[in-house]
Sequence to fold (132 residues):
Amino acid sequence: MRSALKWSLALGALAVLLAAGCARKERGHNYIVRGQVVELPSPANGNLLQLHHEAVDDFVTRDGKVEGMDSMTMPFLVARNVPLRDIKPGDKIEVILHVDWQADRAVEITGLRKLAPDQKLDFRAAHPPGKP
Fold:
């Protein structure tokens, strides 16, 4: 009985160590961005979500500088696990925009939620922290 308990504890400890060693360290930046859907992904548009998004004040560029990103309409890749079935053009949404300049998919929407139709959006120039 004690031998079985020792093996169980040893296997449990090994599983924890393996999980810790295999855990993927998150790289890049996540931004919460609100916007209005212009066009849903389709083969005709390269399977990209066209989104008119608000400014991202703390956006970090490829060279590591906090430059911000102005409001604009642009195409985004959408992660496969992000459901779009209830989204249509004109909907207001909030997304998690993951940016990892070292990844194959450097800029990608990894989360999404629909906002209320009367949600006010502010389409303006970016105001990066520490800049006038």
